Amino acid sequence: MGRLLALDFGKKRTGIAVTDELQIIASGLCTVETTDVIQFLSEYFEKESVDVIIIGEPKQMDNSVSESEADIQKLLPKLKAKFPDMPIERVDERFTSKMAFETMIDSGLKKKQRQNKALIDEISATLILQNYMTRL
Hints:
- By secondary structure, this protein is an alpha/beta fold.
- It has a single domain (about 5-135), classed as Nucleotidyltransferase, domain 5 (2-Layer Sandwich).
- It has helices at about 35-45, 70-80, 95-105, 110-115, 115-135; strands at about 5-10, 15-20, 25-35, 50-55, 90.
- Strands 3-2-1-4-5 form a five-stranded mixed sheet, sandwiched between helices.
- Helix 3 (about 95-105) crosses helix 5.
- It is globular.
- The chain starts with a strand and ends with a helix.
């Protein structure tokens, strides 16, 4: 059994979260520059077995597509070309950034630490992954 891997895709940075091999616990892995995502995944897949890539699906409150979805739509064919046998799933990511910030407050991080946008992206990816796991 391989890991599940989730991406919180952004214009500048992409948060990445993974599960353990038994797919029980979701944990933040890192945040990478969005331009480096495919290279990062290539290197990661050489070391770790991954069963599925989960990508957040940004939506507005009225269920319409968010503007960042256009960038994700450009990424999807690149991922499919590079990793043709890797299933890709999408998960609604509404409120994940807000929930990530709330998680940071609840965990006692200081204001300076809460301004770390890379950490917010990583926590958001973890929330996307947890949301996916609850659907299984």
